[in-house]
């Protein structure tokens, strides 16, 4: 396992990105965390995905119009080989001017609720931290954008932040209603009328939980963490799904998600969950690239077996000795978003 000093040596310092002329001024006499002009972004952070997290942060602050108004909330495991203070110093070494805080997620909250899934990486307790953001973050934080560590934002995050969650909707995400929703659950689930009643009268569509806009006030009021935990307990007893932390979200929020434009989650760029395959971009504009699936761009680049889309990730990589060629990717240009 790499030490903190080893990890710090690997990251270059990012440029200092400053606010444009039209950005709201931050209050000087109020807690920055509670300032209404702040865009809150939550991500998990651990040694294995640290390089991805650093690149994701770099992409956000590079492309936003108001980088000084973005606050990052990093969630670290209490069992990590690199503790929260060390992670704080590592992030600070790459982003001296970044506003952020590292929180500790107690894995015991969820360890006994996790069932094995189709890929071991999906069983990591930190994958379930997104279900506890309303409890982990300060009560004054009413809204947050959750991003996976294998994402790159190539648009102004302010646009995603401003998306309205209509009615009583608690989360917003790109939905994919053409996907076969049934395949995410086992016959054990579909054969039980009591379980399937949760979906009655709803047009439930698949959505990817790696990019979400979350209303934390509504989440707290609706006690959605407890509702997700309930489905995890049923899973332990009945084996109603196979895929990690996603299915409980589908059961709790399916049919009640604020649909966001697909440009905000071009997911699946890491191949599927079992095979590391190359995929091309979907047609249309792109605001966020997501290497969900087994393959990660930094791993493939280092192994000299990159997919074409991995070269879109490389410019945001602050890994120190990384000098990758950046050929053109068909169908994508700097003006396509």
Automatic annotation (TrEMBL):
It comes from the Eukaryota. GO terms for molecular function: glycosyltransferase activity. InterPro entries: Glyco_trans_8 (IPR002495), Glycosyltrans_8_dom-fam (IPR050748), Nucleotide-diphossugar_trans (IPR029044). GO terms for cellular component: Golgi apparatus. Pfam families: Glyco_transf_8. It is a single-pass type II membrane protein. Its EC number is 2.4.1.-. Gene3D superfamilies: Spore Coat Polysaccharide Biosynthesis Protein SpsA, Chain A. It is found in: Endomembrane system. Keywords: Glycoprotein, Glycosyltransferase, Membrane, Signal-anchor, Transferase, Transmembrane, Transmembrane helix. Pathway: Glycan metabolism; pectin biosynthesis. It is an enzyme of class 2 (transferase). Belongs to the glycosyltransferase 8 family. This is Hexosyltransferase.
């Amino acid at each position: 396992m790499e030490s903190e000093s080893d990890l710090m040596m690997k990251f270059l310092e990012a440029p200092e990105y400053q606010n444009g002329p039209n950005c709201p001024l931050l209050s000087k006499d109020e807690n920055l965390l509670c300032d209404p002009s702040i865009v809150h972004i939550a991500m998990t952070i651990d040694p294995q995905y640290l390089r991805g997290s650093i690149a994701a942060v770099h992409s956000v602050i590079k492309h936003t119009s108001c980088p000084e108004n973005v606050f990052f909330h990093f969630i670290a495991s209490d069992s990590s080989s690199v503790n929260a203070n060390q992670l704080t110093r590592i992030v600070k070494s790459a982003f001296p001017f970044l506003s952020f805080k590292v929180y500790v997620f107690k894995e015991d909250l969820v360890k006994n609720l996790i069932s094995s899934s189709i890929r071991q990486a999906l069983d990591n307790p930190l994958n379930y931290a997104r279900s506890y953001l309303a409890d982990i973050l300060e009560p004054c934080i009413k809204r947050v954008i959750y991003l996976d560590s294998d994402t790159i934002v190539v648009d102004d995050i302010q646009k995603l932040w401003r998306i309205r969650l209509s009615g009583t909707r608690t989360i917003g995400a790109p939905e994919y209603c053409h996907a076969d929703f049934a395949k995410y659950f086992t016959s054990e689930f579909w054969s039980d009328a009591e379980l399937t009643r949760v979906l009655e009268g709803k047009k439930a569509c698949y959505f990817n939980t790696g990019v979400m806009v979350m209303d934390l006030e509504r989440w707290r009021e609706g006690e959605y963490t407890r509702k997700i935990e309930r489905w995890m307990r049923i899973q332990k007893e009945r084996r109603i799904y196979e895929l990690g932390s996603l299915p409980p979200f589908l059961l709790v929020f399916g049919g009640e998600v604020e649909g966001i434009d697909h440009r905000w989650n071009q997911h699946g760029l890491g191949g599927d969950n079992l095979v590391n395959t190359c995929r091309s971009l979907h047609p249309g504009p792109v605001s966020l690239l997501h290497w969900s699936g087994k393959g990660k761009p930094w791993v493939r680049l280092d192994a000299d077996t990159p997919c074409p889309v991995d070269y879109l990730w490389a410019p945001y990589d602050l890994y120190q000795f990384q000098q990758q060629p950046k050929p053109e990717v068909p169908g994508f240009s700097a003006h396509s978003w």
